[in-house]
Design brief:
Layout (H helix, E strand, L loop, with lengths): L4 E5 L4 E7 L5 E8 L3 H7 L4 E5 L4 H10 L3 E5 L1 H4 L9 H12 L6 E2 L4 H33 L8 H13 L7 H34 L1 H6 L7 H11 L8 H8 L3 E3 L8 E4 L5 H18 L5 H12 L2 H22 L13
Parallel strand pairs: 1-4, 4-5
Antiparallel strand pairs: 1-2, 2-3, 5-6, 7-8
Helix pairs in contact: 5-7, 5-9, 6-7, 7-9, 9-11, 10-13, 11-13
Length: about 350
């Protein structure tokens, strides 16, 4: 069977395969169970295999690469325009096969096991932070029902809870104190777990060469550096730094036509987690930029003098994303901007 390209619609138990020959004529339509996938592709001649970038796709990509196939992952939003007719597994597999063969298609890098391990640490930490925020908001909301208002910061609530529990004159009932103590214990447990995750990420950042280089950029610490390392890898899928910044969603959204260019706010495409980390890191740099006299700090000071600080933070996050791409793709270390030579 002369097969040039195969599209695979992934699922938990049932997989749909669609293959075309050198004339892009459909020569293969097959439904496979999970335990049949590797056996089938082991008998198939080496070819280009396309899959949607979804849950489990990186695992299957690595397994098919071991069999000698060239595997490409396509983002789901780029597959959708090629779906013909109603949505079903066969049409989805055909659309994936068609999208994979487009010469200008943008693909998703296949993650290594180490990258997925690192990403799992970030996902768990992010969920723990979300749970901690929810528990703090719940405790603050319940206290407000009893006429006690606590500041919005988690640190403020953490200090206030023991004092409220010990104060016998604040009007809290015995039953509610038991509930409040359980909330305090839950908050303490989540604090401990987040601290453990932070220590693990710091250790991983110090042992990873790419993450160590990224930490040299002002505004990028161990957490952001490891998040970039596991999400972007070596950055070779992006032609330039602006492409990576656009993928993260830090570049302006366009609404142009008729030869007239119109730029809107940032597009907020791509990875919201990465974008959040980069912008928060930029905010920390902005806080101390007024006390420094280097080239980057003077640029930030001038930018803040004419634009809102939020805009300045996004601009710095955009710049840091571009610099991060250069360090990842070229294997360089960070060098601060050089002062211009005096005339």
């Amino acid at each position: 069977m002369n097969i040039k390209r195969v599209g695979v619609d992934l699922a938990k138990q049932v997989f749909q395969v669609h293959g075309v020959d050198c004339q892009d004529k459909a020569v293969l339509r097959k439904r496979l169970k999970r335990d049949q996938v590797l056996k089938f592709f082991a008998t198939l001649p080496r070819c280009l295999v396309g899959m949607e970038a979804c849950g489990g796709s990186h695992h299957w990509a690595r397994e098919l690469q071991k069999l000698g196939h060239d595997v490409k992952l396509v983002a789901p939003q780029f597959v959708k325009p090629y779906v013909k007719g109603n949505k079903n597994d066969a049409n989805d597999a055909e659309a994936i096969c068609e999208a994979t063969g487009r010469p200008t298609m943008r693909f998703v890098a296949v993650k290594t096991v180490a990258q997925q391990d690192l990403q799992a640490v970030h996902r768990i930490r992010s969920e723990l932070v979300r749970q901690r925020t929810a528990k703090a908001n719940q405790a603050r909301g319940l206290l407000a029902e009893y006429g006690i208002v606590v500041g919005r910061r988690v640190e403020t609530l953490r200090r206030a809870l023991p004092e409220l529990l010990e104060d016998a004159q604040n009007g809290l009932s015995f039953d509610f104190r038991i509930l409040l103590e359980a909330l305090r214990q839950g908050l303490t447990y989540l604090d401990k777990r987040v601290t453990e995750m932070d220590k693990q990420l710091h250790a991983l950042a110090n042992n990873d060469p790419a993450a160590k280089r990224l930490q040299g950029i002002p505004g990028i610490g161990p957490i952001t550096a490891t998040a970039l390392a596991c999400a972007v890898g070596d950055g070779k899928l992006f032609k330039r730094g602006r492409d990576m910044a656009a993928w993260i969603g830090l570049t302006p959204k366009q609404h142009s036509g008729g030869g007239k260019e119109k730029l809107l706010g940032i597009s907020k495409r791509g990875d919201a987690y990465l974008r959040t980390l980069l912008i928060h890191g930029a905010r920390s740099v902005l806080k101390v930029a007024g006390n420094k006299d280097d080239l980057r700090s003077r640029w930030l000071q001038q930018l803040c003098s004419r634009r809102n600080k939020n805009i300045a933070a996004v601009a710095l996050a955009n710049k840091n994303a571009r610099v991060a791409w250069a360090l990842l793709s070229k294997g360089l270390g960070y060098q601060p901007p050089a002062e211009p030579l005096s005339a």
